[in-house]
Amino acid sequence: MQRNLPFDVRTLASQLLTQVQTQVEAIATRGLGLVVGTFNWFLDLILIVVISFYMLIDGERVWQSMTSIFTLKIRDGLTESLQRNLQRFVSGQLLLGLFMAITLTVAFWVLRVPFFCYLLFLSA
After folding, report:
1. For residue 124, what pLDDT is reported?
2. In terms of domains, do 123 and 74 share one?
3. What's the CA angle centered on 94, arms 54 and 92, to 5 degrees?
4. 79 and 27 in one domain?
5. What's the total number of domains in the chain?
6. Could you give the C-alpha distances from 25 to 33, 37, 119, in angstroms and in order?
7. Are 60 and 103 contained in the same domain?
8. Cα–Cα dist 48/54, whole Å
9. What is the pLDDT of residue 15?
């Protein structure tokens, strides 16, 4: 009013403060999500490494203790079946990955995706 401005500075300041608070809350929420996600990823990585190492060292003994509740005939059939299924699953995943890699390479080449060209230059 003293400067004959056509708007109320107090209203503008309160709107600006509200927007700043909203942005700070959004940043804090994303930051907390990032921290929690990073912690979960790190914990998962540690668990995977520890369990994998343990299973490499003592996997046979763990498997034997888990299947000891079954009779010998069922235990042998179960072990053979699970090994065969796991082998087929891994083989299928590798074949699927190879198929997707070839298909996407051809599709990216046909569509002239820039990243595909960069990969060709990097490998040359």
Report:
1. 41
2. yes
3. 95
4. no
5. 2
6. 12, 18, 40
7. no
8. 10
9. 86
